[in-house]
Amino acid sequence: MADNLINGKEIAGKVTEKVKERVDNLKAKGITPGLAVVLVGSDPASQTYVNSKTRTCERLGMYSVMIELEETISEEELLNSVEKLNQDEKIHGILIQLPLPKQINEDRVIAAISPLKDVDGFHPVSVGKMMIGQPTFLSCTPFGVMKLLEYSDVEIEGKHAVVIGRSNIVGKPMGQLLLQKNATVTYCHSKTKNLHNHTKQADILIVATGQPKMIDSSYLKEGVVVIDVGIHRNEDNKLCGDVDFASAKEVASKITPVPGGVGPMTIAMLMENTCLAAENTLDK
Ligand SMILES: NC(=O)C1=CN([C@@H]2O[C@H](COP(=O)(O)OP(=O)(O)OC[C@H]3O[C@@H](n4cnc5c(N)ncnc54)[C@H](OP(=O)(O)O)[C@@H]3O)[C@@H](O)[C@H]2O)C=CC1
Ligand SMILES: Nc1nc(=O)c2c([nH]1)NC[C@@H]1CN(c3ccc(C(=O)N[C@@H](CCC(=O)O)C(=O)O)cc3)C=[N+]21
Known about the structure:
Layout: H1 8-28, E1 34-40, H2 44-59, E2 63-69, H3 75-87, E3 93-96, H4 106-112, H5 124-131, H6 140-151, E4 160-164, H7 171-180, E5 184-188, H8 195-199, E6 204-207, E7 225-228, E8 232-233, E9 239-240, H9 245-248, E10 254-255, H10 262-282
The structure holds NADPH dihydro-nicotinamide-adenine-dinucleotide phosphate (NDP) and 5,10-Methenyltetrahydrofolate.
């Protein structure tokens, strides 16, 4: 049943094509959108994402720098690097790859990013604006999921959307964006009782639990749209999501795979946000 697949890779390609046009327009005006990716330590998974971000920048003709810092760096040193990037006119977007090592307070580092360059949408100013429906940088993963739904002609208004997960970067903003499109939203999390009862009511189910293959067809209503945000790499280097794809695809009307679902969209939205950050400097 390949026909119920939501092809994130393909949709991300369409999104980045549009970004490319905007990049070309900006370049004609003398501005090259620039992204700085800060990577602390050498976690191989993080390295993969970071490489793919800088590669996509190159493909779109954007400027990108990768700043690699030692695992043992102090919070103060990291804050100094962030401040330098805040001041750097060639840099329009700053992404600090999470998680950070234990000695560093993530909240303080995120708060140090200029909200004008917060292309991840993690800064409290961006989150606050999103909550009250003002234009701002939206967190790339939930923003990417909204784009996936839009491109796949999934109706949201009046539908029951169930979000499993309530992290600040995925679950929480995800529910808000669906609410803004007039879905009825239920949040589930690790303390939720009778998870099946909630998920069985979902017309749209967003899974961001960080638990490999946790959601199988027993959690699903026939015809549900399933979006799998999860990403895990197993022993033999194969990727899987938080959804048991083989089981869920038999019941879902539409479903995202892993890889090739939400992941590529996260990167596409990061490019769009960086382009927007560069466009915003024109208005000043
Ligand atoms: N594709 C992409 O671009 C991205 C993918 N990811 C992936 O998405 C997934 C979620 O990421 P993230 O939000 O950062 O993860 P977190 O670990 O921060 O959050 C997981 C959430 O799931 C809830 N949860 C955990 N176990 C259960 C359970 N058994 N039943 C119900 N709820 C549960 C937790 O509840 P509680 O709050 O009670 O602890 C928590 O709210 C991960 O697999 C991650 O790798 C993340 C970012 C981007
Ligand atoms: N500040 C910050 N911002 C992030 O957006 C952020 C972060 N930190 N920390 C880690 C998570 C994870 N994340 C992914 C991005 C792309 C893919 C992606 O493109 N995945 C491909 C597969 C890539 C592969 O082959 O490994 C796919 O799903 O098809 C996955 C995961 C962003 N994150």
